[in-house]
Specification:
There is one protein chain. About 45% of the residues lie in helices and about 15% in strands. By secondary structure, the chain is of the alpha/beta class. It has three domains: about 140 residues, 3-Layer(aba) Sandwich (Rossmann fold); about 160 residues, Rossmann fold (3-Layer(aba) Sandwich); about 130 residues, Dehydroquinate synthase-like, alpha domain, CATH 1.20.1090. It has an eleven-stranded mixed β-sheet with strand order 2-3-1-4-5-6-13-10-9-7-8, sandwiched between helices. It has a two-stranded antiparallel sheet with strand order 11-12. A hairpin with a 2-residue loop joins strand 11 and strand 12. Helix 11 runs parallel beside helix 14. The mean pLDDT is about 95.
């Protein structure tokens, strides 16, 4: 079984196939390159001189031959139109088919800037190009066993695999086949929480053959004592620096298990298997790990990029409605930052259920930001939208009264109020209310000054200056590094209590 990449021209299949093959220890095979070698001239010339029907017939023979010889851990990049062939589609059944999606505008820019871009007969008119992309997308999605995103950062690259049923009962063998690390050389050690472990640990039976460490659930358990317990259990189980951690769970498990992986014997790989919405759309990506202190959230941690992220959207069906709603806030935050089509889609949803396309788009949006700025030096700071006040609310309430997403939702309202975006503030407030999320602070014991004091301890503060805020006048146009006068911040927090 090979890993076969399908998708539209300009998606980057050849590049990613080479990267994936290197990570898997297999061969990178490219149907377009092989076809051009066989023809002795460019694909565009063949297409133009002999017509599309003749071109597709030749392509079919070459692709079927390539798929027939591809072996385990090989990565195969197929030409965008090759899957129009029924014979090719049949041959895909013996392999894992991965969709590498691309925005049509990005694909157009890539194709036109390539050496032979101007010669490609299907890439001469941008309107027709976009229409062809839309026409083929349904077929790609129908054929794909999963979607693949390729994450890049200064610290290293890794695959993100999104596919329904990866964790379903009876799919253990398939999961073992797609596992991103060689388990004969690196043993997997599972870290989960007691709730998720009971639901899904057995689904990893063929993958995780070493120790399982189950911690108590909840943000209030994301602490140094819990991390010490994990370190000591891994030590007792004989884990070495050649092995890797598997983080199975939501944001708390991912943060803590990632931190333990970053620090155990000075660093071992971690594979994230996120099971909550907040983890699937946000926290599993980007390499931020850590634990909370009683007085400040995520204050002790490390950047540690994962070796891979495996996402099964079907597991979200087991989440309680309140957990799903809280996770939806991270979808809302990402849509506000990204703007465009994602904002239009998210702002018009009436429920908290999120489809696979939205999960992929949110993940892709975050990965693009992290690729440009891994360590919060600039662009990545936009991801803190709503989190400065949100984290302060979590801290002063002992990490128990509000779920992370609920607190961030309140933080979004504060940030939009500070931005002077009255209409957007009202729209987001109504969206939060419609999704059953709090729009006011609950509890007479929560004071404005408590929250302001917690804000001053935010880890984004540098030197003796104030805490920089992310503001947003309209979707898609976040501004970082904004200094907020104390009286304006006090008024924004007071509004959360008064309203």
């Amino acid at each position: 079984m090979a890993f076969v990449l399908i998708g539209f021209m300009g998606a980057g299949k050849s590049t990613v196939a080479a990267q994936l093959a290197a990570a898997l220890g297999g061969r990178a095979l490219d149907s377009d390159a092989l076809l051009q070698q066989r023809l002795g001239h460019s694909l565009a010339r063949e297409f133009e001189s002999r017509g599309e029907a003749s071109f597709r017939a030749t392509e079919e023979r070459v692709v079927c031959e390539l798929l027939g010889e591809a072996g385990p851990r090989d990565a195969v990049a197929l030409g965008g139109g090759s899957v129009l062939s029924e014979s090719v589609r049949t041959a895909l059944a013996d392999h894992l088919t991965l969709l590498l999606d691309v925005d049509p505008a990005v694909a157009w820019a890539r194709v036109r800037s390539s050496r032979e871009g101007a010669e490609r007969p299907l890439a001469r008119d941008p309107t027709a190009f976009a229409a062809l992309h839309a026409d083929r997308r349904g077929l790609y999605e129908q054929l794909a066993d999963a979607s693949l995103l390729w994450a890049t950062s200064a610290a290293g690259d890794y695959p993100v695999l999104v596919g329904r049923g990866l964790l379903r009962s009876g799919a253990e063998r398939r999961l073992a086949e797609v596992w991103p690390l060689d388990r004969s050389r690196s043993r997997p050690f599972l870290v989960s929480d007691e709730t998720v472990s009971a639901l899904y640990a057995d689904r990893l039976g063929e993958v995780v053959v070493a120790r399982t460490v189950a911690i108590p659930p909840g943000e209030h358990n994301k602490t140094l004592p819990t991390a010490e317990r994990v370190w000591r259990e891994l030590l007792g189980a004989g884990m070495t620096r050649a092995d890797h951690v598997v983080a199975l769970g939501g944001g708390v498990v991912g943060d803590l298990a990632g931190f333990c992986a970053a620090t155990y014997q000075r660093g071992v790989p971690v594979v994230h298997v996120p099971t909550t919405l907040v983890a699937q759309v946000d926290s599993a990506y980007g390499g931020k790990t850590g634990v909370d202190l009683p007085d400040a959230k995520n204050y002790v941690g490390a950047y540690h990029q994962p070796a891979a992220v495996l996402v099964d959207p079907d597991v979200l069906a087991t989440l309680a409605p309140a957990e799903l709603a809280a996770g939806w806030v991270e979808v809302l935050k990402t849509a506000l930052i990204a703007g465009g089509a994602l904002w239009e889609r998210v702002s018009q949803t009436s429920g908290c259920e999120v489809d696979e396309r939205t999960i992929i788009d949110c993940a892709a949006a975050k990965l693009a930001i992290v690729a440009a700025d891994e360590r919060d030096g600039g662009a990545r700071q936009v991801l803190n939208l709503g989190h400065t006040v949100g984290h302060a609310i979590e801290t002063v309430t002992g990490y128990t009264r509000y779920r992370h997403g609920e607190a961030v939702g309140l933080g979004l309202l504060a940030a939009l109020g500070l931005s002077g975006a009255e209409d957007l503030h009202a729209q987001v407030r109504e969206l939060l209310r419609a999704h059953g999320l709090p729009v006011t602070l609950d509890g007479a014991d929560i004071g404005v000054e408590q929250i302001l004091a917690a804000v001053t301890r935010d880890k984004k503060r540098l030197g003796t200056g104030g805490v920089p805020f992310v503001l947003l006048s309209k979707p898609g146009e976040p501004r970082i590094g904004c200094e907020i006068p104390d009286d304006e911040l006090r008024a924004a927090v007071a509004q959360l209590i008064a309203s």
